[in-house]
Every structure is written in C-alpha cells, then in structure tokens.
Amino acid sequence: MPGGRPRSYDPELALNAAMLTFWARGYEGTAMSDLTTAMGMSAPTIYAAFGDKEALFRQVVERYMAGPGSYMEAALAQPTADAVARTFLHSAVEAVAGDHTPHGCLIVHSALAVHPRSSPVQEYLTGLREDGVRCLADRLDSFSDADGLPPGSNTAALARLLVTLVQGLAVQAASGAPREALHSVADQAMACWPNRGGRLAGRARRRGA
C-alpha cells in the first residue's frame, strides 16, 4: 500500500520561522496569522504538526535555549567563578543584540506581557528563570577555594544578580541600545564582581583576556 501524503513543509525551517516570530513579537504579541505567514503553513497544518500555540511556543523555547539562547550552558562550562559570570553576561549580549536575529530575548520578551489567561505560559517561563538561577548558584558553589568566590559569598543572590542583569541587557537591546554599549555594561558589572580574598574581578575582557 502506498504511504500517506508526504508533508509539504520542513519541520526545522518551520520551527525556526516560528522562533524568530515569537522572538520578535513575544508570546502574546504573536497571532496565529503571524505564524501561518512566517511558517508558510495553514493553521490546521500547524496544529497537526506542532499542537496549539502554547505547545508550539514550548518547542520554540527549547530550540532557542539549545541555539541562540545557549549562553547559560556556555557559562556553566567555565573553569572559574569569574569566567562563569563573564561568559554569561557577554555571551548574552551577543545573543540579544545579534546582527541577524531580533534584538532582545525571546523568553524575557514573552514573560513581560503574559495575559492572565496564559498563566501556564507564565508559570513555564518563571520556572525556566528559576531553574537558571539555581543552575548558576550550584555552579558557583562547586568551585574550589582557588577558583571560587570570597568566603561567605551569597551565591544564590549573585546568581540572581546575573540573571537580572541579563534580563536588563535584553530589554536594553530590544529598545535599541548598541551591542558595544551593552558589552561595556557587562564589563562594568564584572569590575564589581567579588573575587578571592575580597578583591574585585577587575578588567578582564570578554574575549579571552
């Protein structure tokens, strides 16, 4: 027996188009008509392939976090507490102020304006943020004395500080702040980052300096 009718879309291209649309417009600002236009698919085909808008959005967020938004993973792989913070901030700037993608952060943009009827989406995005804070705090806790923070450092607060800074950088990028200005903000934040012995992290630059 012949197989069913072959699909007429590329799932990877369709998801990428959906990601860019949600990234530019946020969750609430994206209508199904925006998605059908961007993805080149009818609404029934989108529903059949990816589920409803919320289900599609969750798949898009996973794609974003594995791709443009993977700066958390890059930061967690660094060998010192200073490098974790520096990589997190500067890699985030590259992601939220890229040359070929919408400015801002898909997750931050979507979390800023979620209608009460979309509370599951709000809970999902809040959970992602809190997971990020916990992952950063755990990583900061994991370093030996030589590579870590001064004794008594509040790693949970420092982790939340980093996440808050990245959220602010994303909002600034979305409102038109230039990339180099955002990198300067990240440099200034690192100048105030605590180091072993109570020293500050100083002027180490983002590109391996």
From TrEMBL:
Keyword flag Transferase: no
DNA-binding region coordinates: 31-50
Regions that span the bilayer: none
Keyword Lipid metabolism: no
Keywords for the protein's UniProt record, in alphabetical order: DNA-binding, Transcription, Transcription regulation
Record domain HTH tetR-type: where: 8-68
Name of the featured protein: TetR/AcrR family transcriptional regulator
